[in-house]
Amino acid sequence: VKDKELIRGSWESLGKNKVPHGVIMFSRLFELDPALLSLFHYSTNCDSKQDCLSSPEFLDHVTKVMLVLDAAVNHLDDLHSLEDFLLNLGRKHQAVGVSTQSFTVVGESLLYMLQCSLGQAYTAPLRQAWLNMYSIVVGVMSRGWAK
Ligand code: HEM
């Protein structure tokens, strides 16, 4: 129960517009694994990582990712209600060439973003709470991926 409060409170404190936080997250992701940049087919139009990070299609994906996280935060009491959606989402990522291992790196990037954005409020219990929620989300996506 404490986990849920930590997650909801911190997510809310990021503010209404989550896209800039998502950009921090994906900048970190591409730092940890630059090869992932090429999975965004439109990245071929990008001369640099910076170009890509500001391309509309890329920001569109960032927005989608943040909406999925938002849905998870809003369904902490019944995450299983997102099961079909997440299974399908995992399948779609299999189709576009994203490995399930990369989902783990996204998790690290999520924690990095939270650390940057929350400052002092980023504590060990908060980190663990987010890790637990993200593991559930990615666990279902990975099951869908493998189907
Ligand atoms: C779609 C890449 C992680 C949510 C896509 C697409 C690509 C992609 C290439 C299709 C084109 C597009 O919609 O932009 C990646 C890569 C990831 C990643 C490289 C990192 C390893 C995630 C994560 C989430 C997510 C962690 C959510 C938690 C979505 C959604 C769509 C999407 C909602 C749209 C699916 C649809 O069309 O129904 N992703 N993705 N992605 N991704 Fe990701």
Low-confidence stretches: none
Helix content, binned percent: over 70%
SSE order in H/E notation? Answer: HHHHHHH
Q: What global shape is seen? A: globular
Give the tally of structural domains: 1
- Main structural class: mainly alpha
Gyration radius (Cα, Å) is 15 Å
Description of the structure:
This protein has 147 residues and is an all-alpha fold. The protein has a single domain (2-146), classed as Globins (Globin-like, Orthogonal Bundle), CATH 1.10.490. The protein is built from 7 helices and no strands. It has helices at 2-13, 19-32, 49-53, 56-74, 83-95, 100-118, 124-146. The radius of gyration is 15 Å and the shape is globular. It starts with a helix and ends with a helix. It binds protoporphyrin IX containing FE (HEM). Protoporphyrin IX containing FE binds next to helix 4, helix 5 and helix 6.
